[in-house]
Design brief:
four-stranded mixed beta sheet; 10 helices
Length: 387
């Protein structure tokens, strides 16, 4: 094995550059030389960037113009590690997940087997700083599919490709459907959040194949497609509803955090996902993150369920639901809504009536906030405010 941009195996190379075709060469040089790769998001602020670099301790950072910054105090990386990815940070401070070559190969193999596609091109439009975006870039290197790398997501660029497998988040599907472009020939792998049934049906009616995915950065991304796990991946739900995973795609651990690594696994190798759900005759059903459930008056309310219903209201363009402390009920349901028309926003009673048509009364929002935009991570995940 050789080096990549002056960095040798056993050292870490951080890469700070936006998505684009130049990433193909970066991934090739790192993978073929055995140099572990850490993608940085150019949109991160100086403090966030500095904290992650201090945690990662890379040998160098490769920048968009091809120059590198060499770091003193680099720390070695496990020989098994091929990628290091920052978690999304929706549940607190990000950690750096270490993924092995074997795990990445297993994830790519499982995806291809589950999809049944061998020669369809993969289309990269997600940030490479997220596991879903970077694994798409690795398809060409692993040799199982052609690759088209865009400069980011926009409806026109994706539609112009004509066909292929595209990893997206629900907001991207919504924009594609709203643009009324022809989606025949596309397979959308949807992760990063729950996909509304009506939105999925609209994309399917436009000709797309829509595959919902479930997984974590710690599992090399999605390892459950349309509620069915990959071959070799095991899923179980404990008596409290916690979802656990076991299989060949799981992480080696968290960079420089043995305590968190140990807490992430059971003694027999199952990964605690932090999500709650159930397994029924159709497979795995995910309710949401353990900390997101709203407990009101002795009842449990999952915000995603309420969001899906409220999002169908004609006066709602986007919505996020959270719990808020309440002196009598313990918590109450709050809906923060981006109105479809600023001069004709929905009222609380309109939304309550709309929700109660399909949901239990205690799930209807008890307070309404009007907002300009739902906060999201750079990968499209909702940053749910905490009450």
């Amino acid at each position: 094995m050789d080096d990549a941009y002056g960095v040798t195996p056993g050292e870490l190379l951080a890469v700070e550059m936006p998505l684009g075709p130049s990433w193909i060469e970066v991934v090739h040089r790192c993978w073929s030389s055995g140099v572990p790769l850490l993608p940085l998001d150019p949109r991160w602020g100086p403090k966030e960037r500095a904290e992650l670099l201090d945690l990662a301790r890379p040998a160098a950072v490769l920048h968009a113009l091809g120059d590198t910054t060499v770091f003193a105090g680099a720390e070695p990386v496990s020989p098994q590690t091929a990628l290091m990815i920052a978690t999304s940070g929706t549940g607190g401070a990000p950690r750096l997940v270490e993924l092995s070559r074997a795990a990445i190969e297993a994830a790519a193999r499982g995806s291809s087997q589950a999809l049944g596609t061998q020669d369809e091109p993969w289309v990269a439009c997600l940030p490479p700083s997220h596991v879903g975006g970077l694994l798409v870039l690795l398809r060409a290197e692993l040799g199982d599919a052609p690759l088209v790398v865009l400069d980011g997501f926009d409806v026109e660029s994706v539609a112009a490709v004509g066909r292929g497998v595209v990893a997206v988040v629900p907001t991207m599907v919504a924009r594609l459907v709203a643009a009324t472009v022809d989606l025949a020939g596309f397979t959308f792998l949807v992760g990063g959040g729950a996909l509304d049934r009506e939105l999925s049906a609209a994309a399917t009616a436009r000709g797309a194949r829509v595959v919902t995915t479930y997984g974590l950065t710690e599992s090399c991304g999605g390892v459950v497609y349309d509620r069915v796990p990959f071959d070799g991946t095991e899923v179980r739900v404990d008596p409290d509803g916690a979802i656990l995973l076991r299989g060949p795609t799981l992480m080696e651990g968290y960079r420089r955090d043995p305590g968190a690594t140990g807490a992430a696994f059971t003694s027999d190798g199952w990964l605690w996902t932090g999500d709650l759900g159930e397994i029924d005759e159709h497979g795995l059903r995910v309710f949401g993150r353990r900390g997101e459930v709203i407990r009101t008056g002795g009842e449990q309310v999952w915000p995603q369920e309420v969001e899906r219903r409220l999002a169908e209201h004609p006066k709602v363009r986007d919505v996020v639901v959270r719990g808020e402390a309440h002196p009598e009920w313990g918590a109450q349901v709050v809906a923060a809504v981006v109105p479809s028309a600023i001069d004709d926003p929905p009222t609380l009673e309109e939304l309550r009536d709309w929700a109660r048509d399909q949901l239990a009364p205690f799930k209807a929002p008890r307070r309404l906030e009007l907002i300009v935009e739902v906060p999201r991570t750079s990968s499209g995940k909702v940053l749910r405010p905490r009450g």
